[in-house]
Each structure stands twice: as structure tokens, then as C-alpha cells.
Amino acid sequence: TEETLVLIKPDGVARGLTGAILARIEAKGYALVDIRLVEPDRARLERHYAEHEGKPFYEPLLEFMMSGPSVAIRLAGNRVIEGFRSLAGTTDPTTAAPGTIRGDFGRDWGLKVQQNLVHGSDSPESAGRELGIWFS
Ligand code: GTP
Ligand code: MG
Q1: In total, how many domains does the chain have?
Q2: How close is the Cα of 61 to the center of ligand 1, in Å?
Q3: Is residue 22 part of a domain?
Q4: Which of 3, 7, 119, 130 is catalytic?
Q5: Any idea what the CATH number is for the domain that residue 16 is in?
Q6: Whether the Cβ atoms of residue 87 and residue 33 lie closer than 8 Å to each other
């Protein structure tokens, strides 16, 4: 088994989609090992998004992530890192496939790319690092 960090980002929480997103995660059979509502400060987000520092969307991304609480989930399952990213869909909700969280719930207009509802770690190294940031 494997663990990953999933975040339901501020847009997902604000839009009341926490339950709908959790339902998909549970239907897939993944195990909720830990779950908490978090209002991250800038320092935590700078660590989480260190790889994106300097990119044009970095500041708007941090501002967005500080706009309200996120739900942080320590999620376990067989190949859950790859599997959750598959459930989430591609980064931009405008073109994410139907059947995915981003594809089904992402709005197709008035949307910023950073407002894509969820985050999932992209490798075992990222998962270990990010779980330490959100569950310390
Ligand atoms: P995460 O699971 O959130 O890490 O998404 P990802 O792996 O699909 O995307 P990536 O790690 O490349 O980017 C992290 C986050 O930055 C994305 O989830 C978006 O919220 C945001 N982001 C990425 N690319 C863009 C972009 O081109 N424009 C804007 N506005 N935001 C972006
Ligand atoms: Mg990423």
C-alpha cells in the first residue's frame, strides 16, 4: 500500500463539494488515514509549492490557497498516488475529462486555472514531503 496527500482546495470547500469529492475517494476504496480542515499560512504554502516559485501563477496560487480553508487528507491505497491523480483529472478543469473531479465539477468559465478543486501528490517523494508539511 501507499500514501498520498490530497487537498480539497478552497474553491472545493467554499462550493460545498467536500462531501461529493470524499464520496468519489471512498467509492474507489481508498482509506482515510487522517483528515483535517487547515487554513495554511504563507510559510506552509511556500514549502508546499516550492517547485513553482518564480512562475507567473505562483503569487495568485498562494493568494488563492490563503483565501479560505482546505481539507487535507492522508489517503492510503494500492497505487493511490497515480490513482488519485487519475480521479482528479488534468490540471486545467476546462479540458479535464468528464468522469474526473476536475472535469465534472470544474467550471468552464470565470475560472482561474489554480481553482481546480483538488491537489494530489505526484510521486512517492512528493507525498512524503507534502504529508510532512500538512500533517506535522
Ligand atoms: P496539483 O495536484 O495541485 O499539484 O496539480 P498539478 O500537479 O496538476 O499541477 P502543477 O503541480 O503543475 O501546479 C500546481 C497548481 O498550480 C495547479 O493545481 C494549479 O492550481 C496551479 N497552476 C498550474 N499551472 C497553472 C497555470 O498555468 N495557471 C494558473 N493560474 N495556475 C496554474
Ligand atoms: Mg503538482
Answers
A1: 1
A2: 8
A3: yes
A4: 119
A5: 3.30.70.141
A6: no
What is the C-alpha to C-alpha distance for residues 114 and 92, in angstroms, rounded to an integer? 8
Tell me the helix, strand and coil percentages in the chain, rounded to 5.
45, 20, 40
Indicate whether residue 122 lines ligand 1 (CB < 6 A): yes
- The answer as to whether 132 is a domain residue is no
* Catalytic residue flag (residue 52): no
pLDDT in tens, 67-104: 999 999 999 999 999 999 999 999 999 999 999 999 99
- How far, in Å, CA of 70 to CA of 10, rounded? 5
Nearest CA to 102 out of 117, 114, 84, 112 is that of 117
Q: What's the domain range around 98? A: 2-123
- For residue 91, give the ligand 1 atom closest to its CA: 8
- Say whether pTM exceeds 0.90: yes
> From the CB of 2, is ligand 1 less than 6 Å away?
no
Let me know: does 135 contact 31? Beta carbons within 8 Å: no
Classify residue 134: in a domain, yes or no: no
